[in-house]
Every structure is written in C-alpha cells, then in structure tokens.
Write a structure and sequence with these properties.
Blueprint: E1 2-7, H1 10-26, E2 31-35, H2 38-41, E3 46-47, H3 66-82, E4 87-91, H4 94-106, E5 110-114, H5 119-122, H6 125-133, E6 136-139, H7 145-150, E7 155-157, H8 161-165, H9 172-183, E8 191-195, H10 200-220, E9 225-230, H11 233-246, E10 257-261, H12 264-270, E11 273-277, H13 280-287, E12 292-296, H14 300-309, H15 317-322, E13 329-331, H16 337-348, H17 351-356, H18 358-367, H19 372-388
Parallel strand pairs: 1-2, 1-4, 2-3, 4-5, 5-6, 6-7, 8-9, 8-11, 9-10, 11-12, 12-13
Helix pairs in contact: 1-19, 3-4, 4-6, 9-12, 10-11, 10-16
Length: 389
C-alpha cells in the first residue's frame, strides 16, 4: 500500500514520523513517498526533494519560488496517481498542500490534511476550498473542530503528539537542574533560551534583534546565560554568522552564549524564560511550563496584507488555547532590541508572574494529551477501510 505524504517543516516532520510509525503497526507493508525530513527519512520515507525547499512563509515570499513549487506539485501528482496511492496526507504547509490535495482529490485519491489551517484566523473563505479538496481533516486542538462540523467536513481532533511525549506534572526545579547539568550551564545563573525560528528568512529577521536584546540584558544582568538551539546544520551556520557579526564590538560577551545543534527541548528545560518566534515552539514551551516572550515579524508587504486579513486577537498558541493573554506577544515594529530586552528583564525579575502561568499551562497540556499518533492513524485507516467497501 502506497501512502503519499508532504511535510514542509520541522514540526511536520515530527508529526509525520509519529503517524508513519502508528500506521505501520496496522499496515506493516505500507510505503511512504513524497516530501519529508530527517525523522521521516529515518523510518524509510522516500522524499523526492529536501524538505527545506517547502519552508517558505508569508504571502509574498513564495512567489519567487513559484516555478519550482509548481513543478514539485506536478511531479507529486504524476507519481502518486500513476502508482495509485491509497491516500495522501498533507501535513501542515497549507499553501502548498491544499492545492496538491485538490489535484489529487480530482483524480480520485483520498486526501487527508493533518493540522488545521488557521481558518479561524484568516476568515472563512478558505473553508470552501478545504471542503472541495479534503476528505478528512485531522485537527490538533478541540476549538478547531466546530468550524469543520458546521461545514459538513469530516474532522477528527487528535490532540498534539508533543503533549503525549512531554509528561505533565513534573518537578520543574529538578528538570531545570538536570538540563543545566547536561548543557554545562551554571546552575544558579539566570538562563534565557533564544529561538528565532527554523526557517532561513524568519531567523534572518529575528535573530539579530534577539542577540542585540540579549546584549542589552547583559548590561543589567552580567551573569545572564543564553542558549540558542539550532533547528539544523544550515540554521547553525546562519546563527554562528549572525552572532559573530553582533559580537564584533563586544567579543567578551561570547561566553554568555551557548549555541547547540538541535536540543530545543533541553534548552527550554534549562531556561527561566524563552524568547521565541511564534509557531510550534510556543506550544513546546507551554508544555515544558516555561514563561515566554513571543515575537512575530514578517516582511513589510506580507505584514500589511496580514493586518487586513487576520480575525483573531492573538497569534501565539498559548494565548489562542487559553482564550486570553497568558504570554506577551510583540508584533512587527514592536520587535526591537530595546522593547524585547525590557520585556525579558521584566519577566526575569518577577518570579510570581512566572509561577502564575503554571496551572494554566498544565490545564492546556491535559486537554490536548490525546495519544495523537494513534488517533491520527486510526482515523486515516478508517478512511481507507470505508473507501475499500
């Protein structure tokens, strides 16, 4: 049985790998083809192009890559239709995957979209496209199901696999101590984890601001330590270059920065606070019960378009899931070294504020801990069984 899959970024690679494993428990002979990352490749996935070729964010940025993306879409339709794929599962990356799902649906292949596009944020026009292209929506969060049910689109809320992997109710002082020992970070120093994103353009916009803010924080708190986990080798090279540029006039500050290959989980566990780009990492920080400052910065043209289209009061997952502001969000022009450093310092100096988040984070953790990999696999296999009869 051939199953098509496309994951466009690190978080999708994790979801895809978990889903592959759970499907193989039911269908050991299943083969998986499409676009995936290292976790999926490690399970025998056949990727026809590197996953990073799909990691483009915004409205305007993908236009420069349009010929390549159209060619990739055509190649996938040809391959999956000629080999009669049993089902196609698009994991997130809705700009690419929904169009691909429409084409595959038109030639009779069952289609699943895993991770609901933000229809609740961008208005409901997109829901009609989803209804035409998708046989089953796998949503991560309970609040997302209603809109699909209202439109008659089959939907299954599976929770989030990160919530399954991270144990709730842990002793956070012990967890922090263990993580710091592993990273060789001083046990008593204040530690901030910097996570400017996993995409090249995102890192280019945010990392210089994060590093400049860190340097300003060091003036007030000279014992501060900063840990920067890098999503992959290319991001490591990019971060190292940006850090070197920022420290030309402050070479002695280099000892305050620890750059690691991967290990975002451990880096967050070691931290008192996480400064990060909006995205899946905010959910990881929530599940690890870490206070955070969330930043969101797009190109000027994309931001101008987004401001007209966005329909929700929050952009970060912790605030969306809570339905109120739990963590600060700094948007676009607010993302400056002075504003970011002031926000970071105010959180580091307010232990009561940090601790007030714990119960809210714990409640959200429990609400989305639903055994996502198995739930998603069961829903996909049920769709296959129904199609076979």
């Amino acid at each position: 049985m051939l199953i098509g899959m496309v994951a466009g970024e690190t978080s999708g690679d994790m979801l895809g790998a978990g889903l592959m494993h759970a499907i193989r428990q039911r269908h050991p002979q299943a083969r998986f083809v499409g676009v995936g990352g290292p976790l999926m490749l490690a399970q025998g996935f056949e990727s026809i192009t590197p996953m990073e070729r799909l990691s483009v964010m915004g409205f305007v940025e993908p236009l420069g890559r349009l010929p390549e993306l159209l060619r990739l879409k055509r190649d996938l339709v040809t391959r999956l239709s000629s080999e009669q794929a049993a089902v196609f599962i698009g994991i997130d990356s809705p700009g690419f995957n929904l169009r691909l799902e429409q084409s595959l649906h038109d030639v009779g292949i069952k289609t699943v979209h895993y991770v609901s596009p933000s229809v609740w944020a961008w208005g409901k026009g997109r829901i009609k496209k989803i209804a035409r292209a998708v046989d089953l929506m796998l949503a991560l969060f309970p609040f997302e199901s209603d809109i699909y049910q209202q439109q008659g689109i089959p939907v299954h809320c599976v929770g989030h696999s990160l919530a399954d992997r991270i144990e709730p109710g842990q002793d956070q002082a012990w967890v922090r101590q263990q993580a710091r020992a592993a990273l060789q970070v001083p046990e008593t120093a204040p530690v901030v984890c910097l996570m400017p994103g996993s995409r090249k353009d995102e890192v280019q916009r945010l990392a210089p601001v994060f590093i400049a803010a860190a340097l300003q924080c060091l003036v007030q708190k000279p014992d501060l330590q900063f840990v920067i986990p890098c999503a992959n080798e290319r991001r490591r090279e990019q971060i190292d270059t940006l850090l070197a540029q920022a420290l030309v006039d402050a070479p002695t500050a280099r000892q305050a920065f620890l750059v690691t290959d991967g290990g975002s989980h451990q880096a967050m566990q070691a931290a008192d606070l996480v400064l990060l780009a909006s995205g899946t990492a905010t959910l990881e920080a929530l599940l690890l019960k870490r206070p955070m400052v969330v930043c969101y910065r797009l190109s000027a043209l994309t931001w101008a378009l987004a401001r007209r289209l966005v329909k929700v009061p929050f952009i970060s997952l912790p605030n969306l899931l809570a339905g109120r502001e739990l963590v600060p969000e700094l948007l676009q022009d607010q993302v400056t070294a002075s504003v970011v450093s002031a926000e970071v310092l105010s959180w580091l100096d307010d232990k009561a504020r940090q601790e007030s988040l714990y119960d809210a984070f714990e409640a959200i953790h429990q609400s989305i801990r639903l055994d996502a990999d198995q739930q998603a696999a069961a829903a996909v296999c049920q769709l296959l069984d129904e199609a076979a009869h």
